[in-house]
Amino acid sequence: MLPLKKEVRLHYWGKLWKPNSIQWIAHKEREKGTQFVGIVGGSRSGKSVWLINEVIDLCLRYPGFIALLSRWTDDATQTIIRPLFYDIARGHYHPDILGNWRAAEFCQELANGSKVYIKGLKSGDDTNRYAKFDGLSLGAYAISQAEELPKDVWDRLKTRLSQPNVPRHGIFELNPTSKDHYLHAEFEVEESPNHKLFHASVYDNKMNLPPGYIEDLEREYPAGHPLRHRLLEGAWGLTARGEPVIGPIFSPELHIRENEYDPKLPMILSYDPGVQHPALVWAQMTPQGHLRVLDTLLGSDVFADEFFAEGLQRMSDTFGHVTQLLACADRASQQRHGNSPKTEWDILREHLRPWGVEPKVGVVASKQFLIQRYASRFTRLIDKRPAIEFHPRCDYLIEAMSGGWVWQPPTEARPNTRLPKQDGWYEHGADALLYIDMHFGPGIRTIRPVRDDLDIEKKPKRRATAAGW
Asked: Which fold is adopted by the domain 21-213?
């Protein structure tokens, strides 16, 4: 082991690498004392390089500092993160900062006595889910692709920030995910001065990329591509999850239009219940069958009564006084849960009582037929306009139609299934749209085969009597 050095001349961001603006802003935020700092970014936005530089910087500034550098799996940590750590440490910093590698502990010692544990977080011991990091007293943990971590592991990591006499930080980077991820809620929805998340795009890191790289990405993901906002711009939203139900036949240029509420037409409210994310959709249908989707609301771990109250307040704020209202809901809303005396359908009826509306429920046609009929709206014209249009405020539904709403992958038990995936997110808004088409679309009729014993009028059975024998 190299002799401990009390001082090591620091070249932050190395002698070769220069930070981009987002990397430097995130560094200064961490430097001023914010405990949890992260970067969410697109492809090659520089977030992994930032993460490792933060670890090295803390270890050099505070001799004896203890850090954990990880991804979820040990394979990804050892084959991706550890080599990058050495590339940066050896290539960009003072040549003498590294000490010995302690293989048994997956620990890299630094010449000034600091330590960096480089190992995955996923435990192979089912009886101790946190075995890889429990027992460590850390000044910082640095997690690459933090979106991979289960929430309980993320929460448990925070308890390990217990090294005395040093600043303690949770540093992380992640790829953008859909907005149902717990990190979106913690850093984008809940406000805390101790939590900061910065967005980085590939354009922010152009100075460190080879010529033509961004242009190649733009050709692969042109404007309007459902993954462009994620891979190039680093924005939350749609992730590649499977084969889209609508996907390629959805065109932002054709199917997004700022239609506003027409008081001459009834407003249609559709509800799909969800264990975590119930959905409300507002739309209007013209006499010719043109469907104008005007707004949507997605709940998150909310009681039905609170969700409907929020939804009707949103309807009032967005559309003003609605004189004519129609409503429909999934028949699952009529199911009772636990000891509750009311179903979600009962609660919805109470909220709609001022309009005298009885929400429609029940199955009018098979789901496969409804999906085919609904999908045909994207390729049909009514009065020289697409048969379905979405207001730009319906970003959640636009994501679903762009590719978030996907087919259930085949399994050995169901190799030929053609039903959408029950993902707990996009499915609810998409189903609410199907209910509108099912109950209020023109020409809907059942296509399910009718049982013979229900179709044929049966003669009454002759009562057996003694005289009849």
From this structure: Rossmann fold (3.40.50)
